[in-house]
Write a sequence for this structure.
């Protein structure tokens, strides 16, 4: 006889019922999707360590042009070096950049993205091959947008600096004795010998080039080649340029001298149209001071310089700048990759007493200066 199912249990020939909610049947397409690896996000592009070809755009000022030259020396081939004031930034993107080949890296030095909408959109077309360096205060939204298009590694903007040199120095791997001399010239750390042989001419010539917008690769070729002997030969044939305007400025005024522990420090406020480092250098020489504190009160920027010819060994001004940044809450240590000791004194125009606190702290830090 056929076997009967026990009450509440199916017989051998009856399939067990399955609750629809417990049905976990998976078709092959769903299974394949489940086993597929998660898609990886595209990695952010990295800049080339040493570009093969480069085009250089420098703001029309001495320091931006010099910084741009250091970047140009990194490239194996330079397509051109263009110099424009801020209000002609879009001239480069509309008239020059459109003709550059896709394998050319573009260096932009000393410009704010202004007009912001046009400049940022234009720069975004060259994402992955454009690098931007600047020292001005940017609207946060503009800076974030430019970094969003180009990538953090391609944009370096640090406000309060008087020069983009400390920003481009870490980028430069092709360092040489000449490139170091060029940095020393711009930092007013030159030897008297170098200044008289070629530095004075090029200090004037860089300012002259800045006054003439356009392409200047030929005019800057001696710096691109970088042979001091050639610079000296050329300078000997050129007409002697006028002395830097900082000479007349320092010579026509009296400045405060602070004495401490056998040292003297001249404190000098410099108008924005003059070079801060050069004015500090000339003031040290005029007063035979061991140190100078050169100030741009408008920006709250201060450079601490030293006259190494008056001391047995160089004074540790960079260590002093670090100390001031750590000791005083309203002092910020600024980049010093060009070996310049610079600080930012926040709120200096509203709080002139902060300058006195900085001067006092330097005076009490003789052991730091002596290393």
């Amino acid at each position: 006889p056929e076997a009967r199912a026990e009450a509440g249990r199916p017989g051998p020939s009856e399939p067990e019922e399955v609750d629809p909610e417990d049905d976990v049947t998976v078709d092959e397409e769903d299974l394949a999707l489940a086993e597929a690896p998660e898609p990886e996000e595209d990695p952010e592009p990295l800049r080339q360590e040493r570009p093969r070809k480069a085009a250089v755009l420098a703001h029309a000022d001495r320091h931006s042009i010099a910084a741009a030259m250091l970047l140009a020396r990194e490239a194996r081939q330079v397509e051109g070096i263009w110099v424009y004031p801020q209000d002609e930034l879009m001239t480069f993107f509309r008239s020059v950049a459109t003709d550059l080949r896709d394998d050319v890296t573009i260096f932009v030095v000393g410009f704010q993205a202004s007009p912001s909408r046009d400049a940022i959109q234009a720069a975004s077309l060259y994402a992955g091959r454009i690098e931007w360096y600047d020292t001005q205060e940017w609207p946060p939204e503009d800076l974030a947008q430019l970094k969003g298009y180009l990538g953090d590694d391609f944009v370096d903007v640090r406000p309060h600096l008087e020069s983009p040199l400390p920003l481009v120095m870490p980028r430069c791997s092709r360092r040489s004795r000449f490139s170091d001399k060029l940095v020393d010239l711009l930092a007013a750390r030159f030897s008297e010998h170098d200044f008289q042989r070629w530095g004075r001419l090029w200090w004037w010539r860089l300012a002259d080039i800045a006054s003439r917008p356009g392409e200047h690769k030929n005019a800057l070729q001696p710096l691109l080649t970088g042979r001091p002997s050639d610079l000296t030969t050329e300078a000997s044939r050129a007409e002697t340029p006028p002395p830097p305007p900082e000479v007349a400025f320092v010579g026509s005024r009296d400045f405060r001298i602070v004495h401490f522990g056998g040292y003297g420090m001249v404190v000098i406020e410099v108008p924005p149209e003059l070079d801060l480092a050069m004015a500090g250098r000339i003031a040290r020489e005029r007063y035979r001071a061991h140190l100078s504190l050169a100030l741009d009160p408008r920006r709250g920027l201060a450079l601490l310089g030293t006259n190494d010819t008056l001391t047995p060994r160089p004074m540790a001004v960079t260590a002093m700048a670090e100390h001031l940044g750590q000791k005083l809450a309203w002092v910020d240590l600024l980049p010093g990759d060009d070996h310049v000791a610079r600080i930012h004194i926040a709120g200096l125009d509203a709080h002139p007493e902060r300058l006195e606190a900085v001067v006092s702290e330097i005076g009490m830090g003789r052991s730091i200066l002596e290393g």
Notes: Residues 44 and 87 are 31 Å apart (CA to CA).
